Amino acid sequence: MEIIPDINQKKRYSGEIRIYPYLRDHHLESKTILPAVESMMILARAVKLNYPRSNVHHIRQAAFLRFLYIPQDVTDQPVFVDMDPSEDGVITASLRTSLKSKTGNITREIEHARACFITTRAEETSAFPFHVVNPRKGTYIAIPSTTAYRELIPFGVAYQNIVGDLSLTTEDALAYISGGRYEADESLLGSPFPLDAVMHLASVWGQRFADVVSFPVGIEKRIIYRKTRKGREYFGRVAPVHVTPEYLVFDAWIYDEGILCERISGLKMMDVTGGRLRPPEWIREGQSLAIDRR
């Protein structure tokens, strides 16, 4: 994804998202939607352009508030980012678009995503190795990624980045994940595809054990220790920490040959379709879990 800069004022970044063909593979109910991982990249780029010395690898309180739908005939989507720096080194960035009324007389702004960038050095800098992760408990089921992307997460090929089988227990979901390819920007936060695939793991877990088709609506904390890259293979794990009928919350990790690349705390998933999408019968556990490991 390419952002074409046009900085109009100190705390507002205006530009356009270049809609490459691969983004059309991310769709819901036949409509192209901007992925949550891409919205974080846009926010990070705006912050880095306006505050070049800032650190964008420590993100807190990310919220994906409203889908940004991409019309079929659009090649460059206008957006703007409002940035509000605080005295303690936190920059809150908000991704917005403008919407005109049918008459063209009224324009209103829509906020699609928001995140706080801890622009000083991240406090947590030591990346623990994979072998210290708690061993798995209980029996597991394996689902081929081809089945998952055909029946559970029907995105196009650009967003089919779980590799081989994914493994599910009540405790977690594991899989090898691809760094993807295509024109996605990996310069600031790394490739967006591994984290997107981790969100798929969380969605499949929710369909199996919580009887819900869920989508990401927020991340409490994301720390990037080592940027992921396109063309590489990683290992992803998600673990539920809080499950209710309203929402699911996970912690997640992305590893590169046993070294931690990213740690995600408080990945919040919800049904955003009002129940229009339901898990297929074959994936359901039979009884939804209530989990609270906070």
Order of helices and strands: EEEEHEEEEEEHEEHEEEEE
Radius of gyration: 19 Å
**Average pLDDT level:** 89
Amount of helix: 10-25%
Q: Count of DSSP E strands?
A: 17
Beta-strand portion reads 35-45%
Our measurement of the CA-to-CA distance between the termini, rounded to an integer number of angstroms, reads: 36 Å
Shape: globular
Question: How many separate helices?
Answer: 3
Polypeptide structure, described:
The chain is built from three helices and 17 strands. The strands form two sheets. Strands 1, 2, 5, 7, 8, 9, 10, 11, 12, 13, 14, 15, 16 and 17 form a 14-stranded antiparallel sheet that branches. It has a three-stranded antiparallel sheet with strand order 3-4-6, with no helix packed on it. With 294 residues, the chain is mainly beta. It is globular. Helix content is 14%, strand content 41%. A hairpin with a 2-residue loop joins β1 (3-9) and β2.
